[in-house]
Amino acid sequence: MLAAILILLLTLTIIFHISMQEPNSSETDAEDLSKTPQMKKLWSLAQTAMRERKPLKAEKVLLTILKFDEKNAAAYNRLGILYAREKHFKEAIECFEIAQSLDNNASSLHNVGLIYLETGKYEKAEMAFAQAIELEGDQPGRYIAHAKALEKLGQRNKAIEELETAYSLNPTTVILRHMLELYENNNDTDNVAYTKKRIEELQAARAAKAEQEKKAADAKRNAKRHARAAAKSAKQDARAQKLAARQNAKAAKASAKSAKAKANTKTKTRPTKNLRSAKITKGGISKTKLGK
Fold it and tell me: Is residue 137 part of a domain?
């Protein structure tokens, strides 16, 4: 029972947070309102105060906004969330109902249902959740909350159906465990065993998926590491080849220079051979044999 209460409290906390983040027409109104410098500053102050958990400051700023624009549904919705956090449920319900009357919004209906559920008004909670689902039926949190209200009203089969819908939108073990609790309370041994098996299969599938994702991530990292190593090696090879080519060119140039120098030296110091030269005299030509 304690576990169920903890799960409910966690679910309520998550759903309240989601309601604050959901885009709706009220948010558009708030954006239109914030176009004036004064309202823009007030809206920013309100959001900051709520994030920093300063309820008195946030309340004062939101009431100031409503003083200038009494039909601002977004401000009423924020004020309702603020009151709900502080456990001022009556004031919260009033704010959400005003917001709903100004803008037919699933978030406001859902928030009203949460407060009715918290305060034990289960029939009103069930109606509010059902209306929220009609307006926006793709949020698993709405079905979870609706199932809780139906369970409180003793309609366990309908509660199971809502949980199955929530599970189809977002398969989690939390939803399956809540189903398991309902089956256990109803002494439905067959569905208890079946639900336990579903939980085990989902956990195994999640573990297998996590392992696959880890392997894929490792493979990707290794591929990047190998690519970097290959690129570095190729760069080093290119640098070595460039250096070798430069050295070869330098050696070839030095060799050519040396060969040229040797050729010049050989030409200058070429030895004389035995030659017969003619010696011209007054009396005629006489041949002289040069020394060897």
Answer: yes
